Amino acid sequence: MSNLKNLEINVPLTVPQDLKTVYLENLKKITKNTGNLFLFAGDQKVEHLNKDFYGKNISLESNSPEHLFKIASKCNVGCFATQLGLISQYGEHYKNINYVVKLNSKTDIVPTKYKEPVSALLNTVEDVISFRNNSGLSVVGIGFTIYLGSMYEDIMLSQAAQAILHAHQNGLVAMLWIYPRGKSVKNELDPELIVGACGVASCLGADFVKINNPGVQYLKQAVIAAGRTKVIIAGGKQKDEDLFLQDIYNNIKTGGVSGCAVGRNIHQKDLDSALRLCKAINGIVYEDIILNDAKKYLKP
Hints:
- The chain is α/β, with parallel strands linked by helices and 300 residues long.
- The chain has one domain (17-296): Alpha-Beta Barrel (TIM Barrel), CATH 3.20.20.
- Helices cover 41% and strands 15% of the residues.
- The chain is built from twelve helices and eight strands.
- The protein has helices spanning 20-31, 44-47, 66-74, 84-90, 125-135, 153-169, 191-204, 216-226, 241-253, 264-267, 271-285, 291-296, and strands at residues 37-41, 79-82, 98-102, 138-148, 173-180, 208-211, 230-234, 259-262.
- It is globular, with a radius of gyration of 18 Å.
């Protein structure tokens, strides 16, 4: 495995001196000593309900929650992010996974035109620490969603800031999902807003921020705005595999981001197909292989 960049590990001053080793171990586990991250996102059973897991062009395997754990266990992702309750149900049988606990979630049933989006806490960092200590699982971090531009953004910003502080104080890595959304947001994919979201993540002290892709031409600006917070790009809806890998490759090589967060493009496939795609993504994110070599992994 090669280092993709001159790896400079920034340990936030919010991490206590006696827990720096724990924090660094968690960071190195998920980045595999490259500084990059391949996050497998498995929080959609709350976020998008069952339409992401059953239907046209979706493998029947995807409808079972355990499908997520089978993939995460076998495909060597950096980490698997999902809700604490789901981890508590399946984690005992999948102890080789690096878990990131998603602290807040909401469904998409109520549209923004009826209510401004707000994603409230499901669990606290203290819950996560207690679970980590009692379960013996590799719980490496926490994740939190902010809808920037919502009239409730103040609540989410405050809760996120506190969650990041408490996570660092306990040696955990802290990640933010930030999406411009609300009645004041005319375009949720507005590049300026997405770049601004990266700056917000930095101000809150996050280690990583997951954003929607504003276009590869804006990514360098987003990376600079994020400072020492690493930027990873959301995978979005299922796409052609070749084009999907091309996007990941371009985002890293041209845009300068530090990886990707992929959900639907992986778990909507059967296990064998999902593992092949994961191997290709791993090759790009962690092993610095060229795009054509990564695409070879897609073949049965």
